[in-house]
Amino acid sequence: MKFGPATPDDALGGVTVHTLRQGAFVLKKGTIIGPMEVEALNRAGVKEIVVVRLEDGDVSEDVAAADVAKAVAGEGVTVERAFTGRANLFAARAGVLVIDRPAVNRINNIDEAITFATLPACKPVVQGEMVATVKLIPFGVEAKLRDAAVAAARRDVLRVLPYRIKRVGIVSTMLPGLAPKVIDKTLRVTAERLAPAGATIIAERRVPHEEAVLSAAIKEMLDLGAELVIVFGASAIADRRDVIPAALTSAGGVVEHFGMPVDPGNLLLIGKARGVPVLGAPGCARSPVENGFDWVLMRLLAGLKVAKRDLTGMGVGGLLMEIVTRPQPRISPAADSNCNIAALILAAGCSTRMGGPNKLLAEVGGKPLLRIVTEQVLASKASSVTVVTGHQAAEVERTLRGLNVTFVYNPDFPEGLASSIRVGIGAIPKEAGGALVCLGDMPLVDADLIDQLIAAFAPDRGQLIAVPVSDGRQGNPVLWSRRFFGELMSLDGDIGGRHLLASHAAAVAEVSVDTHGAFFDIDTPQALAAVQRG
């Protein structure tokens, strides 16, 4: 292949290497120079242009890319028409992408001109998803190099295996303290995981965390025709002799491997009974966030055998995104318990909906509204109280004179609620394991409600957010674990953390309340008048 500058007349038959612009004249990269292009170049006053010409024994970039792409595409993979030296490959169906890694490496070692990139091996893909691309770097390549790449490909370098397992049985073990709603959420999350594969839960059983009854439940799932059995333990598997592996063995099955170098997901067990795969799910499998359980589950659903060497080979890249609800996070939060909860009172707002007066300074029963709220928080089991000020900060501080609180000023208070949350969270004492975010305009929230929220907060059981609930509605205040401080600090605008409750539903402990105080805030003169009347 010849490469270099040429006059417009000598460039005839060549291909432009770069896009050329001269005045109003534009000639795009990759254009084949014909008589019309030569005339246009001369008319534009172009004296020299860089072109490439294929020689005998060369093939164009598109031909080479297409040939290599066709050679690597196996079942379930289609090839798009090559363009500008690139041929993209797509999944023809939903399934798991299987890759011959040595073959990919062989192709990429042929020559620097030929590159071949894929998605990660064993990744679940959907129909129409791009799974790989072949890209030729130059405009052409020697045919012998193209031939070597095709030969290195052999057959079926890339395949998309369809999902084969459709019938899944679920067994959940129970211990005192494990709420039924945890099992309900686990089933919903699992059903969502199975849906892309077209698999469904054919039956689910909840049994005591005991070997004999669990063994019987596994047998029942097999009798019902389950093609995969998943066991969610009330207690994590600690050893091959623990309840779940022992129950699998007594059900006539075998434990093939326990543990995997993927975090979250370390405590996964894989076995088999009557030829049917059985998974002992790690605790993180209750979360919808990707973890090691997903890696094994999707392979099994596609009919792939997951052997010990497959599991032990997952360590590189096996450190996944942390799941915030895990009882033992990677970075242990300070005082992650309900013994040290700091309270945060937001009192920086402008009371715009009140039409002018600062509602927090208005009196109810002879006492300023904000002081009523603050005294109730101080009477609770909260370890400290921080008040965020902004609008009329000096007056707000005078209103709380004599109370054991810390003030922090929010200079950006006109931006809205989120700015006060950011400032307040940043001022929480380092030893606090959580923050109770209170609104300064909710005078009916009392110390008893706050103490109920603190009591419900249980990080060791994954209950990292506590919120009052009545008739399906979530109220205020809300208690947040330190693990969520980063997300709270990233809030913006005039909104609180309500959307975070939905994002982390599995971490929410709901405290049922009869009082309407958790839902009553004073936003209008009418509301203030109503509470003043009693």
UniProtKB/TrEMBL annotation:
<dbReference type="InterPro" id="IPR025877">
    <property type="entry name" value="MobA-like_NTP_Trfase"/>
</dbReference>
<dbReference type="InterPro" id="IPR001453">
    <property type="entry name" value="MoaB/Mog_dom"/>
</dbReference>
<dbReference type="Pfam" id="PF12804">
    <property type="entry name" value="NTP_transf_3"/>
</dbReference>
<dbReference type="InterPro" id="IPR012184">
    <property type="entry name" value="Bifunc_Mopterin-bd"/>
</dbReference>
<protein>
    <submittedName>
        <fullName>Molybdenum cofactor cytidylyltransferase</fullName>
    </submittedName>
</protein>
<keyword id="KW-0548">Nucleotidyltransferase</keyword>
<dbReference type="InterPro" id="IPR029044">
    <property type="entry name" value="Nucleotide-diphossugar_trans"/>
</dbReference>
<dbReference type="InterPro" id="IPR036425">
    <property type="entry name" value="MoaB/Mog-like_dom_sf"/>
</dbReference>
<keyword id="KW-0460">Magnesium</keyword>
<dbReference type="GO" id="GO:0016779">
    <property type="term" value="F:nucleotidyltransferase activity"/>
</dbReference>
<feature type="domain" description="MoaB/Mog">
    <location>
        <begin position="169"/>
        <end position="302"/>
    </location>
</feature>
<keyword id="KW-0808">Transferase</keyword>
